[in-house]
Fold this sequence. Notes:
Elements: E1 2-7, H1 16-30, E2 34-40, E3 46-47, E4 50-55, E5 58-60, E6 63-68, H2 74-82, E7 86-90, H3 96-105, E8 110-114, H4 118-121, H5 131-142, E9 147-150, H6 153-161, E10 167-169, H7 186-193, E11 201-205, H8 218-223, E12 228-232, H9 238-244, E13 250-254, H10 258-267, E14 270-273, H11 282-289, E15 294-297, E16 312-315, H12 322-331, H13 334-348, H14 353-376
Parallel strand pairs: 1-2, 1-7, 2-4, 7-8, 8-9, 9-10, 11-12, 11-14, 12-13, 14-15, 15-16
Antiparallel strand pairs: 3-4, 5-6
Amino acid sequence: MRIALFTETFLPKVDGIVTRLRHTVEHLQRGGDQVLVICPDEGLTEYQGAKIYGVSGIPLPLYPELKLAVPRPGIGEVLAEFQPDIIHAVNPAVLGLGGLYYAKVMNIPLVASYHTHLPQYLHHYGLGAFEGLLWELLKAGHNQAVLNLCTSKAMVEELKNHGIERVDLWQRGVDTEMFQPSLASEAMRIRLSQGYPASPLLLYVGRVSAEKEIERIKPVLEAIPAARLAIVGDGPARSALVAQFAGTQTNFVGYLQGRELASAFASADAFVFPSRTETLGLVLLEAMAAGCPVVAARSGGIPDIVTDGVNGYMFDPAEPEGAIAATKRLLGAPAERELLRQNARMEAERWGWSAATRQLKDYYEAVLYAQDQFRAA
């Protein structure tokens, strides 16, 4: 099978969407399929045997790490040469609209997937008044697809409630070989805690941006004076958060990848995740695979992953003291925390990338079969 994948973001950027796409491309190519990735140009031309066609773009004003790449005629030439069986548009917003267009003019079945809860993001950038309009635009784009995929049950229902049709679930995935409890390290703990490894160590991993609501961890830190916080990642809100967390025991670590990132997860006492805009929260699965207990907001796709009191703790994001109480409970019960670690790892082991990609390919094959039946009718 030949798949043309349109995405607004790809390597070398580091986030949950890129992680999912990277593993998907790896497993599809390994299984004998051919993938063409059409994405903003970052200088890459190939990944794991898949051809990358980069489209020049400009940095997004509110988020310079992301590029706005507008479709151009060269995409049509590349698609004509590649001859895809299916087009998959990931979060079609700007470049992804080219996927919608070429699927229509070239009569190629279109699959779309929804990974970023953009309507909720608007509220964190002072643009909440446009939420209704954005839903209408999303509906117009996604309803051109034969199939729309979401990564959590909550988002499946959210899209259906806003008039998006033909929606199904693309199951979660995590690299359980990379993220393991055995990678816990005293050296990493010293590094994250800035030389205080005996102190309770809280961890945040992910984009450092407004919609992640990292500032909501500050009251937790203030309520547990002995605790230290490591923020792993980067993004447009970093300078504001550095000022906001001034005077607290917070370490802005920057990006970690691969084994270092896995060791960071495994070495922390609690992974604190206050975001209310998650379609899934892949970093939660990575933390759980590494045996790091999770304290997360009960919102979006998070309840699909975390079972409260079994493999982590959830809190009501509308309750000011919720995150504080949950974190104190976790840190105050070592025996219970160890059980949560074990259960978290067991849950993560159910969700390998191979199974997630097999499910995606089954969706592709079903779409192609339905197209053949329609043409034969």
